[in-house]
Amino acid sequence: MAALGWLTPRRRSATARSVLAGEASAEAARKTTQEQEPPPSAEQNEDEPEFPVLGDDKAAAFFDLDNTVMQGAALFHFGRGLHKRKFFETRDLARFAWQQAWFRLAGVEDPEHMQDARDSALSIVKGHRVAELMTIGEEIYDEYLADRMWPGTRALAQAHLDAGQKVWLVTAAPVEIATVIARRLGFTGALGTVSESVDGVYTGKLVGEPLHGPAKAEAVRALATAEGLDLSRCAAYSDSHNDIPMLSLVGHPYAINPDTKLRKHARELDWRLRDYRTGRKAAKVGIPAAAGVGAVAGGTAAAIALSRRRR
């Protein structure tokens, strides 16, 4: 897929693969939402802070998925569903269950795990039809994911929707799976990792690289340019220091259930903090109190690993 040429000048360097992954994700996200109607607006309580700003069509919100919107890693649970459908062996599922547990304890992403995640996911989907994975994704959402969406972050997203703004998931999970989750949550759409397909069949290759770290920022930048958004009026939400490039793009960055590095960075820059895991409220909030409900725990993009097929 050729680069789309949407990018505006960036403050930090990004690899060509990050740029390609980001642009491809933005293109895929817009294709899946171009026929959708914008969400209806709702009146805002006069006692609540004026954020999100009602009717600001130049603003949008971007939400990381794992450990921000849902408990744990979406692709781990997607892997559970594929294992149930005999896509791969039990011993492989156990291996990636250990990776999920390791990440939740360590709180940092292991490069070897990320590489394993990419290779494993690609080996599973190669030769399968995109439509097949979309159908399975709908089933797996009902089986494993629906009760892992936490009310605190969902309330944050709903505040943006009620203000008439678009809300996007931004995740390293495949864009097809991310789109299913976004639709079920009532979000506008999703930016996710784009796997190459020919005539509706996965080739086992990625377009660029997984949508992780700098690639997320490139996807948000590309989508904002295509949608005519003003990033200084947009908001972004994440738990991971790996998403600092994305958070730094917007005028309203939020650290949600932050890891140690992100918490430190957010405090240094006076970013808003929300930690639903303990019920603590950070000093700087700036959003309706109703959004502070819920609890979140679990992993992020390092646990996106799916298991390899039987060799």
Please summarize what this structure is.
42% of the residues lie in helices and 13% in strands. The protein has helices at residues 16-33, 74-84, 90-106, 111-125, 130-145, 151-162, 175-185, 214-227, 244-249, 260-269, and strands at 60-64, 166-174, 189-193, 195-198, 201-206, 235-238, 252-256, 272-274.
Overall pLDDT confidence: 76
Helix content: 40-55%
Number of strands: 8
* Residues in β-strands, percent: 5-15%
Count of DSSP-assigned helices: 10
* Overall geometry: globular
As residue ranges, the low-confidence spans are 1-12, 35-48, 279-311
- Written as H for each helix and E for each strand, in order along the chain, the element string is HEHHHHHEHEEEHEHEHE
Based on secondary structure, the structural category is alpha/beta
Overall radius of gyration: 18 Å
Query: How far apart, in Å, are the first and last alpha carbons?
Result: 30 Å
Strand order of the largest sheet: 3-2-1-6-7-8
Oligomeric state as shown: single chain
Q: Biggest β-sheet: count, sense, barrel?
A: 6 strands, parallel
Description:
The protein is α/β, with parallel strands linked by helices and 311 residues long. It has 10 helices and 8 strands. The chain has helices at residues 16-33, 74-84, 90-106, 111-125, 130-145, 151-162, 175-185, 214-227, 244-249, 260-269; strands at 60-64, 166-174, 189-193, 195-198, 201-206, 235-238, 252-256, 272-274. The strands form 2 sheets. It has a 6-stranded parallel beta sheet with strand order 3-2-1-6-7-8, sandwiched between helices. Helix 2 (74-84) packs antiparallel against helix 3. The longest helix is centred in the first third of the chain and has 18 residues, at 16-33. It is globular. The chain starts with 15 loop residues before the first helix and ends in a 37-residue tail after the last strand.
